[in-house]
Write a structure and sequence with these properties.
The chain is an all-alpha fold. The chain has helices spanning 3-9, 17-48, 55-85, 96-125, 131-157, 163-166, 169-172.
Length: 179
Amino acid sequence: MSTAKALQRERPTVYTRTQIALHWLVAALVLVQYGTSGAIMRTHAVHLIGHRPNPTDLFLHTVHNRIGLGIVVLMLGRLALRLWAGAPAPGDAARGFAVRVALIVHLAFYAVLISEGVTGAVATYLWWPISSVHQVLFKMLLALVTIHVGAAFWSELVGKDAVMRRIGFKQLLGNRNAP
């Protein structure tokens, strides 16, 4: 038996509850980030013309900054957990090119989300011009989410390989082998 086949057999069949919880927590926090991002622009625009920012916008600005830093910590934790616990093998419908693309997209998520938090912190606390990089990373994140969600639906509906069930709520709630 080759080493590659031996390693493949050791891969988990589903994600751990912690991996699933972190996946959905980060997804929810990214939505919060999207919802609070407008306050950043409003706060800075008003401040630049010499007016005091709206207290609600200041609060949302703080929420955005703190959650951004939290996402960095969560993503580093997710990365460590993935390296330690592994990830399930691709679904039956995924072959060759699709498997490589999936891996690239997942690695890009780690890189973009961690970079988003870092550039956001640098823009807030050290050097605001890097906010343009932060905005480009956000557009990359939107593209990654589109690819990720589209591929998950394709895999589930066309490939019929139950990929979405492996990262779903049934496993999170305790029934890890439920379809």
